Amino acid sequence: MNPETKTCQNCKQKFVIEPEDFDFYEKVEVPAPTFCSECRLQRRLLFRNERVFYSRTCDSCGKFVVSMYPEKALFPVYCSPCWWSDTWDPLVYGREYDFSRNFFEQYKDLLKVVPMPNVSVSYKTLVNSEYNNYAHNLKNCYLLFNSDYDENCIYGTELERSKDCIDITMADSLQLSYQCINCNNSYQMYFSIDCEDCQNIWFSKNLINCNDCFGCVNLRNKQYYIFNKPYSQDDYFKKLQEFDLNSFINIEKLQKKVREFYLAFPHKFMHGRHNTNVSGDYISYSKNVYDSYIALESQDCRYCMWLIIKPNKNCYDYTQFGENTQLMYEDLVCGKGTSNVKFSLFCVGNIRDAYYSKRCYNNCSNLFACVSLKSKEYCILNKQYSRQEYEVLVPKIIQHMNDMPYTDKKGRVYKYGEFFPPELSPFAYNETSIQEFFPLTKQQVFEQGYSWRDPEQRDYEITIQPQDLPDRIKDVNDDILKKVIGCAHEGKCIEQCTTAFKIIPDEFQFYKKMNLPLPRLCSNCRHHRRLKERNLLKLWHRQCQCAGEQSDSKIYTNTVKHVHGTNHCPNEFETTYAPERKEIIYCEECYKQEVV
Questions:
Q1: pLDDT one-digit tens code per residue, 89-120
Q2: Closest Cα partner for 366 from 381, 350, 351, 349?
């Protein structure tokens, strides 16, 4: 089969469907998509509210809860214990399929009546950790998202197996660390990026097995280095004192200085290791994985994201989770033994042969357009059928979806094979993960046909402005716990700013212990600030910038002779570093020569 070029229904840009893509679509028995891969990802992210919480009551027991859904949600919202209990039966909401009505309209009606859990957590595995989402196995944690197996951690995303950390994004096995991105197996890391197996590191990037380093980049097995220069032990700690790291003003200045320093060194074209035939970023131990972002031990996948629980095989357009999955297509937050699950949301635990389903758990199979089922099979719109009845009815529904397609308010057409229309999402654009990766202003959101939700009126009064906070933690007393601090962004950004924040006791003790100054931004704005240190979800075709003995820019001079000698490196690649960025980008071969 030859490649085929199509025009995306949403962005109107051309996109190509390759022969291997058609092979996958044939394998899972779906038509080729009519949206490009980027628009398909955006459509899925519109259904994922990770960080926006509301105060409300459980519609079952009346208990106060924090929830992804506001009090005026169009459907019942139960606290986790009530939702997981046997006191209600989701089959009660089952209904006959109506061939005189559009499929998505019928499904929308079902979504309005079936209860949803207040947050996405394994609540029995949480200890003193109520205010978290997309999480399990947490102890004494607060505002962690997409995180597991953590203890005494606050304000983190994609944080795994860590302890005593604050403001971390994408990390595994950290301890006593603060404001880090993509750091693993390390202890006492501060304001650092892409480091592994390190201890006592400040303002550094891409270090492995290093101790006591400050403002360094691309080092291996080093100790007592400052801006990539070696020091004696005594001189190192004297110099550290001179930096005056207890001052907020000095830390802000140092962050700007080290980021300029990073630009003088080569960066590998992608983050990852031990891969065969991959394209994308943050991919490791994978084979034949293309156009994907954050994936571990995956094989034969494309257009996937956040597959951090391994292994996964033969998946396309699959966003978040994983763990022994295969033949997944157009899914969001599904996993743990799932197979042949298509166009579905939050389906977890040995789910097989499920289509257009949401919040189904634990050994379900043969579901079509179901909501909140557990351990069921052969169900359509939450109505139970025999196997024979199910197998006769499903093909008729698929044909009906093609004969009577849904058309959204922007004229986009949804037949069988398309993910849910944005209008079925219970969330507004600015509440969801799409705002983190594809940020838009309120006006832009409306222009593109999406919804926006203004923040609820808050009853607090800001009692101290960020510029009035003491520069050093030693000058802060316990009264700060009673203060409402204004966020320096004042809600003027598009980063889900909460406009104000408080310092909680455990957080205050951490700053005191580590001698760190108080932050001036709310936790959401700090989160978005860290996200800007992580590469975008887009690939550019580029050539290695190693020009032989130095970089193209002549900023960096190679330390050793490369295989290509004085000639320009011929290697080309797909990279998440845009051509206009200032970083020096090397292929893997040239990069290894300079850092190993």
A1: 999 999 999 999 999 999 999 999 999 999 99
A2: 351
Tokens of 466: 């960020």
Per the CB < 8 A criterion, the answer to whether 208 and 431 are in contact is no
Cut 0.85: pTM above it: yes
Q: Tell me the mean pLDDT in the region 554-558.
A: 96
The string of DSSP codes covering 321-373 is EESSEEEEEEEEEEESS-EEEEEEES-BSS-EEEES-BS-BSS-EEEES-BS-
Residue 596 has pLDDT above 80, yes or no: no
CA proximity to 398, closest of 368, 424, 378: 368
> What is the rounded CA–CA span in Å between residue 535 and residue 527?
14
- Residue 539 falls in which region: left (phi positive, over 0), alpha (psi -120 to 50) or beta: beta
Task: Give the largest Cα separation in the chain, rounded.
Answer: 81
Residue-level pLDDT at 460: 83
CB burial readout 37-58, b (16+ within 10 A) else e: bbbbbbbbbbbbbbbbbbebeb
Name the nearest CA neighbour of 178 among 125, 248, 267: 248
| Cross-strand bridge partners of residue 174 | 186
Backbone angles phi, psi at 558, to 5 degrees: -60, 145
Residue 465 tokens, joined: 């402005």
> Would you call 195 helix, strand, or coil by DSSP?
coil
Distance of alpha carbon 379 from alpha carbon 385, whole angstroms: 6
Instruction: List residues bridging with 380 in a β-sheet.
Output: 368, 383
505 Cβ partners below 8 Å, 6+ apart? 481
Kindly report the number of other CB atoms within 10 A of residue 29's CB atom: 11
Q: What is the DSSP letter of 490?
A: T
Contact 194, 210 (CB under 8 A): no
Residues 439-458 pLDDT 10s: 999 999 999 889 999 887 77
Cβ burial 484-514 (10 Å sphere, 16+ → b, else e): ebbbbbebebbbbbbbbbebeeebbebbeeb
pLDDT band at 192 (very low <50, low <70, confident <90, very high): very high
